[in-house]
Amino acid sequence: MSNEAATATTATAAGAAEAGPAPEPIPHGLGSSLPAADARAKTEGTFPYAADLWAEGLLWAAVLRAPHARARITSIDTTHARAMPGVRAVVTHEDVPGSPLYGRGKADRPVFASEVVRHHGEPIAAVAADHPDTARMAAAAVIVEYEVLDPVTDPEQAFEAEPLHPDGNLIRHIPLRHGDPEAAGEVVVEGLYRIGRQDPAPIGAEAGLAVPRPDGGVELYVASTDPHADRDTAAAAFGLEPQRVKVVVTGVPGATADREDQGFQLPLGLLALKTGCPVKLTATREESFLGHAHRHPTLLRYRHHADAEGRLVKVEAQILLDAGAYADTSADALAAAVSFACGPYVVPNAFIEGWAVRTNNPPSGHVRGEGAMQVCAAYEAQMDKIARKLGIEPAELRLRNVMATGDVLPTGQTVTCPAPVAELLQAVRDFPLPPLPKDTPEEEWLLPGGPEGAGEPGAVRRGVGYGLGMVHMLGAEGADEVSTATVKVQDGVATVLCAAVETGQGFTTLARQIVQEILGVDEVHVAPVDTDQPPAGAGCRGRHTWVSGGAVERAAKMVRTQLLQPLAQNFGMSTELLQIADGKITSYDGVLSTTVAEALDGKELWATAQCRPHPTEPLDDAGQGDAFVGLAFCAIRAVVDVDIELGSVRVVELAVAQDVGRVLNPAQLAARIEAGVTQGVGIALTENLRTARGVIRHPDLIGYALPTALDVPDIRIVKLVEERDVVAPFGAKAVSAVPVVASPAAIASAVRAATGRPVNRLPIRPQAAVVTAQ
């Protein structure tokens, strides 16, 4: 380099230094970590949730709930409540003008109990008053006479008990038959497993605002995750045409599953219609626990057959799901449990019996990883038993049995999507183990039990365990999965209209990235969701990444064609020979080069498109059928420290390898995996909604122990396998549910390794991890 050039370079560098560092480029398009548009508002506390809403002439609502798990209602007297100053309306079952029953999977749940109470917390009446305290006092003043009955709380007793519901106690039975029933292995292990009841425990309890309309209808402002289904249910209960009920989705303050309980929405709308005034309801945490659905408590019996090398020969299982009082989505949860009862392993012969039954326990419904999580804990315990019996290292035993693309599920469906289970397991197995804790006073916080724990370092044992999980994406068994989206572009700004609800899974960020990628437009807005838009379905099982994201992609591509068509015609070429990148349109040969803004030239372009995945089919009488659109897999290695005298457990590290198809937003994807793993820690160690004769004990966040920041271990995402699923838009897979499925099983496996105890129940109780002196 010449001296002149060197001097010029130095001067340029000095000038740049004086001007300060160049601003970092804003993330753009798919594959970038585009931040959420509402992140700042949420962190500053200015983001509007339903609990923040207000309206002129607002009334407040309160719901009276049954204190018994099972009872016959002999009388309901609302006289005293109606006479209280400030009370504007009291509604019971007699005031429901339309259908008295509703439900997600099946309409079998009353809006208000009328003759029989079937679970603790069932709504009996609702009150609207001019002050929230008045509403609550008036609800308490409703006099209900009960004849208390013995509840049926053991799901095994439900088969012989008298019918708890006109539809009977059995919701669904699936007998899966695959292979030779006479097949047997040289090694046989058996186990009985119990999974407790977990609550979604969203960060914000349920709230809503109902506003009557001039046409006699009503608008519901609620944190719905499936607004069109909620609208149709509400319209049926209110005796109105669907077009006279509008659901407007407010900010969703946390949703680890569907916000699917309409026991809050329906009384709210009825009160607004009766009073002609806006009515608001903000649930307490206790009401939230009593009202919404929980994870299905499950009883599982397993028998595994393997040959002398540890290869699986046959799996036999019985799976019993406690649905609580009503059907809800229990039929779907049972299908997942039965279908995935053998896990991501090759099993030539499988015979599974699955039942979902009604009891007088709290209602169960859709919670992330439903069905799959429960069976994962059981089949991984069985794999540990086989490994121990044969003296084979647990990871090696699993490697000998893992499935791959082209293998067949016990349902007879061929796995056509990428299934890199062996690669995932090898990644976590080979990842370096964390260092051992030091037995010094300065490091006592590393002991199980937390800071100032009572344990002694000499009583701590370290264990390493594995969990392999699988989930299905989208609906199953013939569910019509469809979503509609509209993309508009004008004045260099794009707008996306899609009724896919942002529950925290990142759909609105993904929609912005899709439009940026396809149209080269930086500024993209996603419109608020309401039922004036075409339906997009529920926000669960990765639906919106796949189906709604696919609809946005198709609509954006149609707009792209509209944008490029005139340019292509002018230059005598097809639109396929033009590309958009960094806001510029160029041709393959460089002859054409212009900006997107110049090409738009003030025009308004828009298009509407749908995405509908390939159809599935229901399981037949033998549990066979192509029931699932796609599958996702995860491997987790857990490292735990266990105080074998106290039974306390500290999760040291969780190493995660996951099959993601394609990384669309790295930061968002990592956050979703970490959140799922953290939820799994709670399931494994602390979360259990306890009941006594069907009555929830301690329905609060003191009695129900969620994991805190002190309970969360180091989470190491050691590998993300990006093998694209060719039938999925962008090739991406859902990422949130499968870590929830695998992590509790991995933690239980690690506790077994540390203690030698069977650990056959989740959450793990201290007595299960205590090792008595021999």
From TrEMBL:
Signal peptide: none annotated. Residues 1-21 have a biased composition (Low complexity). Residues 44-150 form the Aldehyde oxidase/xanthine dehydrogenase a/b hammerhead domain. Gene3D superfamilies: Aldehyde oxidase/xanthine dehydrogenase, a/b hammerhead (3.90.1170.50), Aldehyde oxidase/xanthine dehydrogenase, molybdopterin binding domain (3.30.365.10). Residues 1-37 are annotated as: Disordered. Pfam families: Ald_Xan_dh_C, MoCoBD_1, MoCoBD_2. InterPro entries: Ald_Oxase/Xan_DH_a/b, Ald_Oxase/Xan_DH_a/b_sf, Ald_Oxase/xanthine_DH-like, AldOxase/xan_DH_MoCoBD1, AldOxase/xan_DH_MoCoBD2, AldOxase/xan_DH_Mopterin-bd_sf. This is Oxidoreductase. It comes from Streptomyces pharetrae CZA14.
